[in-house]
Amino acid sequence: MTTARDYAEVNPLFARSDEPGTAPRHHLPETGLNQEAAYRLVHDESMLDGNARLNLATFVTTWMDDSANRIYSEAFDKNAIDKDEYPQTAAIERYCWRMLADLWHAPDPADTIGTSTTGSSEACMLGGLALKRRWQQRRRAAGQGVDKPNLVMSSAVQVCWEKFCNYWDVEARFVPISLEHKVLDGFDLDKYCDENTIGVVAVMGVTYTGMYEPVAQIAAALDRLQQQTGLDIPIHVDAASGGMIAPFCQADLLWDFRLPRVASINTSGHKYGLVYPGLGWVVWRESSLLPDDLIFRVSYLGGDMPTFALNFSRPGAQILLQYYMFLRLGRAGYQRVQRGSLDVARFLARSIQGLGPFELWNDGSDIPVFAWSMAAGQDRGWNLYDLSDRLRMRGWQVPAYPMPDALQDLTVQRIVVRNGVTMDLADKLLGELRSAVAFLDAHGGPRGAGAAFHH
C-alpha cells in the first residue's frame, strides 16, 4: 500500500507541505517557498498564456537562435543607461543606429544622431518631441506664439501617436482613411496643415492592415504646400515595421532620408529587426535636427552621460542582440528572412481569398501583414469575430476588429507573418481556417453576421 510519505518521495515537487493550495495573488506571503516550488507555480500559471508562435496578432519577435539566446543570458543584467559602467554596450548602440542611418540613406551617416529605446512607441515620442521643439524654436525666433501646435497623421496611426499628442499638449489632426484612400497619401493634406503644424507622420506599415503610406507622395504634397504658402513642414516616418522590410525587399521605394523632407525615422528592433522585445530605434537625418536642449548630460556613476530618452534604466541585452543580428545576417541574410516572410504572407492572402466568403483589403506585398473582410453580400449567419473565436479554440490568435473612424462599420481580420511562421505552419493554419469556415457554415455563430461586437 502506497503511503503519503511514499508519494511525496516519488513526486516531491507537487506534494510538498510548504506548497500552498493556491498561489497568493493579492498580498505578499508571510514566508517564501523554496525555489523549485516558486518556479513551478509561476511556470504553471504562465502556461495559460497562448502559444507565442501561433500568435498571428503580434508583430513582436517570438523566436531567436541558440547563439542569440546565449548572448541574452550573458547580458540580461546590463543596464543600458549605465554608459560609464558598460561603455562597450554604449559603443555597440552607436554602431547600430549608424548602421540604420546608412541603411536608410542618410546623406552623411557620420553626422546623424540616434538612440535606442524600449520600443517604437518611445521612439515615436522622441521623434515627436524633436518636431515640437524645433517648431517652438522657429516660432520664438520669429516672435510668434507657440501655444497651439498640431500634428497631422492618418486616422489609422498606432495609438502611441494619440498618446504623444495627449501627453505633450499637441492637437492631433487625423486625416480619415476611406475605401478610396486606404492610407494617408497626400490627398487633402493641405486642409489639415497650417503654420502651427509641427510635422506630418507617415507610416511604413499601418498597424491595422500592414500597408505602406506613400511617403514620396506625402512629401510631394508638402512641397506643393510650401510653394503656395511658404510653410516648410517636416515628416517623421514611423517605420516600426517597414523600416526593416523596405531596404531589403523594396530597395527602389523612396520613403527614407533620400527624401529631404524626412527629418527622422523610427523602427522596432523587436519587430522585423528580429530581436526579442523590447527594443526600438530612432535616427535623425543629421545631428542638428535633434535640438541640443532636449539632450541631458548628467553625471552618473562617475561619468558624464548624454541621454535623450523617456526611460532611464532599461535592458542592454537587446542592444547586443541587435548587433548580433546585424553581424549574423547582414544585408543578404535580412533579405532572405524578410522575403521568406513575404512569400508566406502572399501565399496565405491568396489562399484566404480563394476560400470564398472573404475579400482582401491588401495582399501582404508591403510588409508581410494583410487583412480581409467578409465579401459583400456574404450573410452566412456568422462574422469574423466568430471565426476568430473558432481559431483561438485551436490555439491560433487571428484578431478581428473594426477599422478606424469613417470606416468603423467595417470589420477586418489580420494576419502578421514573422520569422518562424513557416510555409508549413501556414498550411496548417489554412486547414484550420477551412475547418472553421465549414463548421460556422453548418452551425452559424453565437453573434451572427449582423452582430455588433468589439473586443
Protein traits:
Aspartate Aminotransferase, domain 1, 3 domains, 11 helices
Mean pLDDT: 91
Full CATH superfamily name of the largest domain = Type I PLP-dependent aspartate aminotransferase-like (Major domain)
Summarize the main sheet.
7 strands, mixed
Q: Give the count of structural domains.
A: 3
Q: Runs with pLDDT <50, length 5+?
A: 449-455
H/E topology pattern: HHHHEHEHEEHEHEEEEHEEHEEH
Shape: globular
| Strand residue percentage | 5-15%
Order of strands across the widest beta sheet?
Answer: 1-7-6-5-4-2-3
CATH T-level topology of the largest domain: Aspartate Aminotransferase, domain 2
Q: What is the correct CATH architecture of the largest domain?
A: 3-Layer(aba) Sandwich
Please tally the helical runs, counting DSSP H or I stretches of 4 or more residues.
11
Helix content: 25-40%
Q: What do these coordinates show?
A:
This protein is of the alpha/beta class and 455 residues long. The protein folds into three domains: 1-48, no CATH class; 69-325, Aspartate Aminotransferase, domain 2 (3-Layer(aba) Sandwich); 338-443, Aspartate Aminotransferase, domain 1. It is 36% helix and 15% strand. It has eleven helices and 13 strands. It has helices at residues 4-10, 35-46, 66-75, 87-103, 120-141, 159-167, 215-229, 246-249, 317-353, 384-393, 423-443; strands spanning 113-117, 150-154, 171-175, 197-203, 235-238, 262-268, 280-284, 296-300, 303-307, 358-360, 369-374, 400-402, 411-416. A seven-stranded mixed beta sheet has the order 1-7-6-5-4-2-3, sandwiched between helices. A four-stranded antiparallel beta sheet has the order 10-11-13-12. A two-stranded antiparallel ribbon has the order 8-9. Strand 2, helix 6 and strand 3 (171-175) form a beta-alpha-beta unit. The chain starts with a helix and ends in a 12-residue tail after the last helix.
